[in-house]
Amino acid sequence: MSHKLPLSRVARLVGLSRSSLQHMIRNGEIATFDGFVELDELLRVFPDVSWEEEGDYRRVQEIKEKAFGKRIFERALPDKEVLAERLFELGKEFAAAKSLLLHYDRVFDWLETKLDYLADSDPEAADALESLKIWLQQQLDEAPEEAERGKALLAQESVMRVMSAHVTVQPSGHEFFVEGNDTILEAALRVGLPLNYGCSNGNCGECRARLVSGQVQKVHPHDFHFSEADKANGAFLLCSYAPVTDIVIEAGVTGAEDIPPQHIPARVKSVEEISDQVRGLHLTTPRSQRLRFLAGQSVTLNIDGVSAEYFVASCPCEDRQLTLHIRRDNRPFSRKVFNELAKEDTVVIDGPHGSFVYVLESSRPVIFVAWDDGFAPIKSLVQHAMSLERAETMHLYWIADELGHYRDNLCRSWADAYDNFFYRPLKLDGGITGAANAMLEAHPDLSGHDVYAVGPAEFLYAVRDGCRVRGLPSAQWHGKQML
Fold this sequence. Notes:
Structural class: alpha/beta
Shape: globular
Strand order of the largest sheet: 13-12-15-10-11-14
Strand content: 15-25%
CATH superfamily of the largest domain: Beta-grasp domain
């Protein structure tokens, strides 16, 4: 009986990104079966991996958490009823495995008796049959070296399955883990996957989904009523249930056009002095009014009747925390942020706006291009791509004109933390065409890439034309003019 592991859990076990494993699969280095990797294949491909969280692995994880700038990963135990169910399911697997081993023991005892009978019946074959018995016993007594590594791997995977459950979403094919005491909806939003939802407290039914396989447990009550036919078909609410086992669900993913306009009074958490010319405005929305938006979108901010539109610089996965980069200029809103705004002041958010968003279904290599504070939406897109772990590689080019690379250390920390992320800061020494050419010279063939660029119109035209010359399809170009 083979033991199969989902690709996302394999990534955690071996300390690689899911996109790195997908690259190995495409190159024929790893064999998979319907998206799963068999235990023997995992041991073959990674003969030197230790299944313990050693210092280097923990250090890389810490770097990633700091570089990503999102929430601190929760280490809480799952809901007690969910935990009890997971332990019960694990116990059933253990019992089944033990029962199978007992069956194998009985089969071996029968085989040994049969061999003895044949040896007595045919003295000429007695020596050969005795040699076969000895060889079989040796094989059972002398477990191969891989058996110990396999045992350690299974032990660690069992702990992972108790602490978290793996979710596969159909038909989009997205995957994520539910950690701690999160509901399925909360866990999806934490990784930036915008599953459909409305109130998020069990009243509207907008987050309804269908359970295809696996087991879920209700952890929050809800008032929404399902018909008996819906229940029989596996319908449930993502905001009220947590997975007991690894599950497959049918659920809708929100697009930019699906997000309703929102009007949210937020509180100022801090006004960060990023540089002389840029302030980081950090806002917190009310507990009951998380802003629904996609990376790359903008919002309108209003302070005492003074308003302006800005790109959101934070990832949708950061719960109720929002960050915006405010450039020093002559606009009344900018002057208020630089000179008057204080902690706990109210800033009203209206939005989101725009369709310049990340293509969730794509796993193609991505090139991100930012001009000055056009870095804000690009930062949101980069963090969203990192959270989803689908892009094979990511290249970030940041052209600094007036503002400088005001988050240069953050970008460098991304490059240090992620094997598939590359960062190159550029200056406008050679003009707009020179900046575009300097960026594109390392990418002679862009036919299999996605490009996201934010900047002034003339710069966008130069980058777009250069990308087209290098084979970029029109549908894979995503450009947005600066606000």
